[in-house]
Amino acid sequence: MGDKASLEYREVTRTVRMNPDDMRRVGVENGSKVRLRNALAEIEVTCVSAKDELPPGVLFIAYGPESSKLLAGDTHGTGMPDSKGIEVELVVPGRA
Amino acid sequence: MQSEIRVVEKATCTFCGCVCDDIDLTVDRGRIVKAKNACVLGKAWFLDHTIDDSRPEALVGGAPATAALAIEEAVRILAAARYPVVYGLSDTTSEAQRAAVEIADLAGACLDTTTSVCHGPSGIAFEMVGEATCTLGEIKNRADLVIFWGSNPAESHPRHFTKYSVTPKGMFVPNGRKSRYVVLVDVRKTPSARAADLFVQIKPCQDFEVLWALRSLVKGVDVDAGIEAETGVPLATLRALAERMKRAKFGVLLFGMGLAMTRGKHYNAAAILALARDLNRYTRFVAKPMRGHGNVTGADNVVSWSTGYPFGVNFGRGYPRFNPGEFTTVDLLVRGEADAALIIAADPAANFPQPAIEHLKRIPVIVLDPVLSETARIARVVFTTGVYGINVAGTVYRMDDVPIRLRPALPSRYPSDEEILKGIARRLRELRAERGCA
User: Shortest Cα distance from B88 to chain A (angstroms)?
Assistant: First the structure.
């Protein structure tokens, strides 16, 4: 059974993947902490290189308790909150 | 303790919507030690299980209680509520799902399943467009063009490739992988791209535009070259794909949450269903959602054949009404309307939007779950139940709507969801009779 209390689950759902060119551009080391924020919440996650998986400007985080904090409650009449394609601001600790 | 090895043949894995029913489980001293034929996800599902008797059968207000006492408290909460919601149901048997429908009916509740935050938009699209569909067996035996759209089966449904869609030899695709052309359309280059002949990377939230362009090209309507700047996909790529789709003998579009969770939602799903429908003017083409949880398809089926609608159903007027956005759980909680919740085999406190979780914390919640989930931690009443497929027998539906029986491997001292739900339904019926309700 997928154990949501497990360390592995917590790590996976608290890791964001990022385009390596973007990481260089904003000065993020592989495995370092970054913060993602929008109007609803701010979460701290570990940033790792997505290698060739993601184009510039796109982040990926697995669906879980942390990513859900960034979800708005409006479902636009469908029952489904916007759970992908959400705009966030990436904050690198120690940088303005 | 002496080794007491036994084998449960052709057990059914309920981790994902593939519901593989060819798993041979080796059980030794109350633990599953081998799961032959299972994928990496299935192995984790089976091998993590032991017989754990340590939890109380129920909690009421955080204190251990008997299941009978907890049923009384659950019935009191549901009977006192003016606008309760019954939610979850994708990780339990169809027998339990049927009992939950009865409770919702008796309580005049909203009935919603995890489909509403999964392929709910696809369910809306089915009503808009219809569904050109088939079984996974037909895909295995006939499909020579397989297009995955916004889904990543290499990680979410690992055996889909080998059992049904990419490598198996079939009646009309005798050379297996060599007989098929495989396409992946996605925002990110997932591990599934390695299995594809063509990977089409689109910009986020541009699925509808790409699908509509394909519909146009299939029908011979020209598309502006500016489509590349908008979607990231060159017009030449779309033209070639449209022609390949028309030339296929049997094509299939297998779409995932990349469509349903993204802006556009049901319009994205409607676009892919309409594309498949259009292609049937030229060849045989189907479109199917890649379903996640082991019996989420069963939830759709049971709620549909019980009420006429797949999810987001309200019984407040004594008959079922369907209105996603009004009777769906996230909306009911975010608007602060639900005044009680019965949650079966789901964990909304872990993955709903924060405003919904905040309201869930303010109302009495009843939870049925084998584990102490985040939702169970905030619940007034918690039932510990057996795990379907591991401890509990019953019926589940594969992602192509084929019902499959479960063959449990381990006993449990905990009751099934079905037993608890039937107990609640029985007491609600008795209460209605005492109050003179029909």
Answer: 13
- Are B62 and B174 members of one domain? no
- B201 vs A: CB within 8 A: yes
Residue B52 domain-assigned? no
Indicate which CATH number applies to the domain containing B301: 3.40.50.740
Read off the pLDDT of residues B350-397 as tens digits, 9 standing for 90 and up.
999 999 999 999 999 999 999 999 999 999 999 999 999 999 999 999
Establish if B349 belongs to a structural domain: yes
Place of tokens 């002949």: B197
Q: Are residues B159 and B262 in the same domain?
A: yes
Q: Which residues of chain B does A76 touch, with a Cβ-Cβ cutoff of 8 Å? A: 265, 325
**Does residue A83 form part of some domain?**
yes
Domain residues for the domain of B31 are 6-47
Residues 47-86 of A with CB under 8 A from B: 50, 52-55, 58, 60, 63-65, 68-69, 71-85
CB contact A87 to B (< 8 Å): no
Q: Which of A1, A14, A53, A59 is most worth mutating to test chain B (most B CB atoms within 10 A of its CB)? A: A1
pLDDT bracket for residue A94 (50, 70, 90)? confident
The chain A residue lying nearest B387, using CA atoms, is A1
Residue whose C-alpha is closest to residue B380's, from B76, B112, B68, B101: B76
Contacts B257 to A, Cβ<8 Å: 83-84
CATH number for the domain that contains residue A31: 2.40.40.20
Integer angstrom CA distances of residue B79 from B145, B342, B365, B420, B435: 53, 12, 13, 16, 11
Contact B257 A77 (CB under 8 A): no
Is the torsion defined by CA of B271, B289, A2, B78 positive or negative? positive
Q: In degrees, to the nearest 5, what angle opens at C-alpha A6 toward C-alphas A4 and A8?
A: 105
Question: Looking at the predicted complex, does its ipTM rise above 0.85?
Answer: yes
Is the pLDDT confidence value at B315 over 80? yes
Distance to chain A for B144, nearest Cα, Å:
27
* Same domain assignment for residues B126 and B209: yes
User: Angle at Cα B124 formed by Cα A81 and Cα B327, nearest 5°?
Assistant: 60
- Cβ of B295: how many Cβ atoms within 10 Å? 33
pLDDT digits (tens, 9 = 90+) for B91-142: 999 999 999 999 999 999 999 999 999 999 999 999 999 999 999 999 999 9
